[in-house]
Amino acid sequence: MNELLARATQGVDLTAPGAFWHVFANLLAMTPWAALFWWNVLFIAVGALLGWWRGRLAEGIAWAFVLGPIGWLVFLLRKRRPPPLPR
Fold first, then answer.
1. Among 1, 4, 65, 67, which is least packed, fewest CB within 10 Å?
2. Distances (CA, A) of 65 to 18, 32, 51, 70
3. Which residues span the domain enclosing 1?
4. Are 71 and 60 members of one domain?
5. Can you give the pLDDT at residue 20?
6. Is there a contact between 24 and 5 (Cβ–Cβ < 8 Å)?
7. In angstroms, rounded to a whole number, what is the distance separating the alpha carbons of residues 64 and 19?
8. HEC states along 23-80?
9. Cα–Cα dist 52/35, whole Å
10. Which phi and psi angles does 55 have, rounded to 5°?
C-alpha cells in the first residue's frame, strides 16, 4: 500500500490547492485501460449470448454493459414477460 501511495503522490506537493487532481491523474495513469476494455467486451459478449438464448438480446447486452457479470445474474433471475395478448 505504501508503494501505491508513493507512486500516486510522486511529484505532487500535497499542500498545493490542486493536489487532489494531480494524485487523481497519477492514479488514472496507473490504471490498466486495455485490460479493462477487453474484459468489458467479454462481459458484453456473454451477455449477448445469454440474451440470444433467452430471446431478449438487447436486454442481455444492456445488463452486461451496465453491471458486467452481475448483470448476467440480474438478467437470468428476472422473470420472462408473457407475450402480449392478441386484440
1. 1
2. 33, 19, 12, 10
3. 1-31
4. yes
5. 92
6. no
7. 36
8. HHHHHHHCCCHHHHHHHHHHHHHHHHHHHHHHCCHHHHHHHHHHHCHHHHHHHHHCCC
9. 26
10. 80, 20
Which residue shows C-alpha cell 467486451? 41
Rounded Cα distance, 9 and 20, in Å: 9
pLDDT tier for residue 67 given thresholds of 50, 70 and 90: very high
21 and 54 share a domain?
Answer: no
pTM for this model (two decimals): 0.72
In 3D space, the residue among 11, 8, 14, 13 whose CA is nearest the CA of residue 30 turns out to be: 8
Residues 23 and 45 in one domain: no
Evaluate whether 43 touches 71 at the Cβ level (below 8 Å).
yes
The chain-wide mean pLDDT, for the chain, equals 91
- Same domain assignment for residues 39 and 19: no
What pLDDT, in 10s, does the model give residues 4-24? Answer: 888 889 888 888 899 999 999
